[in-house]
Write a structure and sequence with these properties.
With about 300 residues, the chain is α/β, with parallel strands linked by helices. About 40% of the residues lie in helices and about 10% in strands. It has 11 helices and 5 strands. A 5-stranded parallel beta sheet has the order 3-2-1-4-5, sandwiched between helices. The longest helix is centred in the N-terminal third of the chain and has 20 residues.
Length: about 300
């Protein structure tokens, strides 16, 4: 009656969650070619698939209206994919460091997995969280899930970062094609989330990511499909319909010549490795293959993103 949580539910939570692994989704909202998810699944521990809607950590860039609309659809698609594999997506909101501190206080975590961020605030936040996890004997592993190669893997002869794209791209290409993308886990061993102190799961709708009154995005679904399936459809359509002639059409505003993959990449619904190998397979195809110059130009644009 006082509002304090009784001891029994907390004990049940620790029994159900003891030894769980956190798979922390960020800008990698997909199940295929997701190295952190693959490693988390291979750990054998029950998984909490977690998305933290963090609008509190200083330095993190706030999402604009269109990006918020996209995020809603992407999270909904990810939740569906996870459920088909035996896990569920848990959404919480707040500062990531405070949330991990609360999880550590519960003493229920075995390990944590995530794909790296590369912005200044994200890198600093992740470093602090990783240090705190390790100080509490919680294993933590991070992976490259959003780049063809890590920033430090291609450098000048003196070991410094390259500042001009041409030499960078020639050096990167000299290493050959990136590793082939990996398939999605067929099954996931999901754990049941139970709220901890000051951290409660929330519904996707409670984030209020979609506009209303007015709904200025009502026409968006006629042109865009957020989510992993939408990303796969987009790359397939681009290869079939716009890759041929891309080198010239990409600069023509009167033509639908761009890939329109940018938001899918932004939210990690498709990886650059998946895109790369899709283009290479088309280039090597003996039937209706796009000219090599178009494929090469598109791969160069993918490299420019790096």
């Amino acid at each position: 009656r006082s509002g304090a949580a009784p001891a029994a539910p907390r004990a049940r939570w620790e029994t159900m969650m003891n030894g769980a692994a956190i798979m922390w989704f960020r800008n990698d909202l997909r199940v295929a070619d997701n190295p952190a998810l693959a490693a988390a699944a291979a750990s054998g521990h029950p998984l909490i698939c977690l998305y933290i809607h963090d609008e509190e950590t200083p330095g993190l860039r706030r999402l604009g209206g269109a990006a918020r609309w996209w995020l809603h659809g992407s999270l909904a698609a990810l939740a569906s994919s996870l459920e088909k594999r035996g896990a569920s997506l848990t959404i919480v909101r707040g500062a990531a460091e405070a949330i991990f501190a609360a999880l550590l206080e519960s003493r229920a975590l075995r390990s944590a997995f995530w794909n790296r961020r590369y912005d200044t605030a994200g890198v600093a936040t992740d470093a602090r969280i990783k240090a705190r996890l390790k100080d509490n004997d919680v294993s933590c592993q991070s992976f490259n899930g959003s780049l063809l190669q890590e920033p430090w893997e291609t450098a000048t002869a003196a070991g410094t970062p390259m500042r001009v794209f041409g030499p960078f791209w020639r050096a990167a290409q000299a290493k050959g094609d990136p590793a082939a993308p990996t398939p999605a886990p067929r099954k996931l061993k999901g754990a049941t989330w139970r709220n901890v102190k000051n951290v409660a799961a929330v519904s996707l709708s409670s984030l209020q990511l979609q506009p209303s009154k007015p709904n200025w995005a009502k026409a968006f679904p006629t042109r865009w499909t957020p989510g992993e399936d939408g990303a796969r459809e987009r790359i397939a359509d681009f290869i079939d319909e716009a890759l041929h002639g891309y080198a010239a059409a990409r600069d023509r505003p009167d033509k639908d010549g761009s890939s329109r993959l940018s938001p899918h990449l932004r939210f990690g619904e498709i990886s650059p490795r998946q895109i790369w190998h899709s283009i290479v397979q088309k280039r090597l195809s003996q039937t209706d293959a796009a000219p090599a110059s178009d494929a090469a130009k598109f791969l160069t644009e993918l490299g420019w993103r790096e």
